[in-house]
Structures are given as structure tokens and as C-alpha cells.
Amino acid sequence: MDHTDHMRQSIDLAVSVIGGTPVERYGDPSPCAEFTVREVVNHIAFGLVLAQRSATREPWDESWKIEDGAPFLIGVPESEWAARCAEEGEATARAWAEPGVWDGDSHMGGSPMPAAVIGQMMTSEFAVHAWDVAAATGRDLDVPAALGEAVLEGILAVAPMGREGGWFGAEVPVRPDAPAFERAVGASGRDPGWTRG
Asked: Which of 14, 23, 86, 197 could anchor a disulfide with 130, C-beta 3.0 to 4.6 Å?
């Protein structure tokens, strides 16, 4: 299994969790730093747009702001968000499966970066935020071991920058023999045992 498969699996996890989340739960709190379920879903959706543009090397639209919502969800009823995310997820996974897409440089929201770094980062992003939504709605997330290892590697690579930038919290200690994905959740500043209080 390679990075293309891991990207596909992480997108599929996120899309599946969103698809199984009732809109009535969108106002619930999540483990993701003061985000509600709705905000995590929107964040995943915006990430799909970022990742797709990175893969295709299409220019980033400077008018897009995360606080406005993912571009393809603006004005769309929340009851349709899951279906729209599934469509965007499929397009994003296909884009990252194109020959040579992981090679060379691309951009992340306009900032130049190596494509492989972006791909690894977004693979981790989709899987961890899928866990946020699952945990917020009382569900387990079944992450294959190989994907868990890839997510852990991606989280550890960006954790120092994430903490400095304020989008990762302090690492939550996890037992050393815990599954890789559980360690990734802890390294991202989340408590793998989080439950709604």
C-alpha cells in the first residue's frame, strides 16, 4: 500500500463519518479545540478543496476564506452537506491518484510546498478530523493499521509547526504500545479517550 491508497482511505473515512452523522448532531461539541461537529465537517470540506487544488496545481481563489465556509457548501442546506462532501471527496481522491501528482512542488492555499508534504499532511488531516466527528457523536473509527502508521508519521512531521501556529494543542500522553492512530490522535493534542462531558 502506498501514499495514494492512504489518501484515498483517509478521505473515505472522513466522507463515511460525515455521511453517518445526523444533521441534528451538528451543534454538538467535538474534541477539536472548541469546534462543533458542524465546524469540523466544514473544516474537512474546506480541506478537500485545498487538497484537490494542490493536486491539480490549480490556482487558489484568494476570495475563499474558511470562516465563510467551504466554497461548495455555501448556500447549501446542511441536509445536503454529506452528499456534497462525498462528491468532492471522490474528486480529490482521483486527483491525488494521477501519475506524478506526488512529485515536485505544488501549493497549499497559495503557499508553495512539496506535493508529497501536502499529501502526507492532508492524509493525516482527513483521518484525524474523521475521528473528531466520530468521537463527538459517540462512534468508534476503524482505522487500518497501515493507515494509522501513515497518519502518525504525518502528524509528527507537522506537530511542532502546529503547536507554534496554535492549531495543535499540547501533546496528550498515550501509552507507547498504543496503536499508531491512537498515538497520532494524542500527538495532535487530542485525548484519544475523549467523550462528551
From this structure: 14
Per residue in 183-194, is it b (16+ CB within 10 Å) or e — as a string?
bbbbbbbbebeb
Q: Is 6 helix (H, G, I), strand (E, B) or coil?
A: helix
Which ranges of the chain would DSSP assign to H, the alpha helix? 3-19, 37-56, 81-95, 115-136, 145-165, 180-187
Locate the domains of the chain by residue range: 3-187
Are the CB atoms for 157 and 189 separated by under 8 Å?
Answer: no
Topology, domain 3-187:
Four Helix Bundle (Hemerythrin (Met), subunit A) (1.20.120)
What three-state secondary structure class fits 78? helix
**Is there a contact between 21 and 133 (Cβ–Cβ < 8 Å)?**
yes
- The string of pLDDT tens digits covering residues 38-51 is 999 999 999 999 99
> Which of 88, 87, 118, 85 has its CA nearest to residue 101?
118
Question: How far apart (Å, rounded) are the C-alpha atoms in residues 33 and 25?
Answer: 17
In contact, 157 and 123? CB cutoff 8 Å = no
In whole angstroms, give the CA distance from residue 57 to residue 108.
9
**Tens digit of each residue's pLDDT (9 = 90 or more) over 10-37:** 999 999 999 999 999 999 999 997 899 9
What values do phi and psi take at 104, rounded to 5? 70, -160
